[in-house]
Amino acid sequence: MKEDFEDIFHEEEYSELVNRYEEMLKNNTSYFFDVSEFESIIDYYIDSNKANNALNVVKYAAQQHPNSLNIQMKKAQVLVDKGHAAPALQLINQLEKIESSNSDVYLLKGSTLNIMGRYSEAERAFDTAIIYSYEDKAEVIHTIAQSFEQIGRYKTALKYLHEAYKLDSKNIMLLFDIGYCYEKLGQINKSIEFYIQYIDKEPFSENAWYNLGILYNKYEKYPEAVEAYEYALAINPDFSVAYFNLANAYSNHEDFHNAIINYKEYLKFDGKSVEILTFIGDCYESLKEFDLALKYYDDALNIDNYYADAYFGKANVMFRLEKFELALPLIEKATVIDDINPEFLYLYGNILNELNKNQEALNAFKKAHDLSPEEMDFAFSLSDSYVRIKKIDLAINILSEYLKDNTRNALVYYRLSGCYFLKNEKDKALMLFEKGLKIDPKDYLEIILLYPDAIEDNVVNELLNKYCFEE
């Protein structure tokens, strides 16, 4: 409550000062303001993103207080905000000669050098600021860390944050910033560790719980993510984006009922989100409640008739219901809107296959594979299409290329074995079949997809007895 009162007081004070200043300009008169009042007016315009207004105040203030270091510092800050870092640095260098032991000068110099991309020089300036900051040293170091955070130099920011925390372990915002920087660096375990430390000291921070939920989600720890988002929402029931992420966490954990509940909660904040309506459709589809899935896909399309994901969802429902003729125009609309989505093209190929449009299906699978060659289903479907039109060597090329990065995938060996059986290269086929059995014998039936006669082969059966059926 005290902080709220102080904020209101400062806002009223700022408003009164700014009104006096603007009244002076309007009446073309001259009022006196002391240095601190001018600083407050300048800060108001900086905070309002009115850099030109702030610079005009600086010019007027300099006339009344020509020897004020603080006004010159504000001028440099405004120049930086206007994108004039070089002249700002020139001014700061002049101020440094006058006030060579003023930490604020070096803080401003460091921030300006950071903006100019001169990071090593910025660190030297900041380190000098720390030397001359006799009071509130931890606060100064925290400010320096935030300067590096703002430009995405999280590793450097961490160096200063840890230094600040050694000096002031009671400042829990340092823990929050440390967790944030580790998150940005992809060091998820470290990030979780510091967010938990922060939450232990500030358990009612919805932002900390929310960030923790994001980290657990990245680690695929969905129950923990759900718990974190639920804490965030218990603290702040109007935290709309937390409903969205909570729903995603439930969906990732295949708890589609709870995912739907929370997506619908999010819709109370944004009832026209075609993305959320489509996600709800996806959940109903996963639950095999196809009528409801189609309803929500249609709701999305009623808002945005060019939303490709909703057409894809409808096409997928029709495909699962084996209504291939109805699925075809829907997936065609999706691929017209977004012709570089491999998932769309993959479904398109499968629908065309069911309609016995083999060449068109092959073209769709080829486009999907070209976009995502690392995706197993795309490689397998394309190779199957080549087999279907008797181009076995092309199928072998696709599978062999995929095998280079997936040498422990038994399914590839079984499929390659089937291709070589089709080419009557039995020795090569048996060698590949045995490699597959050594890796994972339980999937041996994969060979039947390409070469059903394999199950009648004596050597194949000997290998099966050796790797699968012997006790």
Molecular structure report:
The protein is an all-alpha fold and 471 residues long. The chain has a domain of 63 residues. It is 77% helix and 0% strand. It has 27 helices and no strands. Helix 6 runs parallel beside helix 8 and helix 19 packs antiparallel against helix 20. The protein is elongated. The relative contact order is 0.03.
Could you give a quick summary of the protein structure above?
The chain has helices at 2-27, 35-47, 51-64, 69-81, 85-98, 103-115, 119-131, 137-150, 154-167, 172-184, 188-201, 206-218, 222-235, 240-252, 256-267, 274-286, 290-303, 308-320, 324-337, 342-354, 358-371, 376-388, 392-403, 410-422, 426-439, 446-450, 458-469. The protein has 471 residues and is mainly alpha-helical. The chain is elongated.
